[in-house]
Amino acid sequence: MSSPQAMNYYPKAQSSYKPPLIANENAFLGDVYSSDKVDPDKPISAGFYRLEKGTPLVYTYTYHEMKIIVEGEFDIEDETGQKVHAVPGDVFWFPKGAKITFTTNSYGLAFFTGSRAEGGA
For residues 68 and 47, what is the distance between their CA atoms, to the nearest angstrom? Predict the structure, then answer.
């Protein structure tokens, strides 16, 4: 019989967690939690992505990711030409290999879960 597993809790993460700068002058991303230490064969990581007005972020996914917009707005476009003006409550799935361009006229904050190890974005 396996031992009980404790849940993890980060109170008020949406307002208190500040993701680090990852690209340009305006793109921030940080993992809040990851399962890679307990399940290295099939890790998932979750955290926040923030983009402020400025340079667009063009990102090619090397893993599958789900994202929900929690604040602000994004304009999100894929290589097929599909473009969405994303607002709080909108949910996206980005498959491995997708090349996505993120822009905003103000700022946007999203929560993500990706099939990758911590820091693997």
Answer: 11
The residue among 62, 61, 75 whose CA lies nearest residue 108 is 75
7, two tokens: 């849940």
Alpha carbon distance 83, 76 (integer Å): 6
Residues listed for the chain: 121
Identify whether the C-beta of residue 19 lies closer than 8 Å to the C-beta of residue 30: yes
pLDDT digit string (tens) for 14-34? 999 999 999 999 999 999 999
CA dihedral sign, ordered 115, 107, 76, 62: negative
99 C-beta neighbours (distance < 10 Å), count: 13
Per-residue pLDDT band at 58 (split at 50, 70, 90): very high
The pLDDT, as a whole number, for residue 1 is 62
The band of 5, judged by pLDDT with boundaries at 50, 70 and 90, is confident
What tokens were used for 46? 């979750």
- How far from chain centre, in Å, is Cα 36? 17
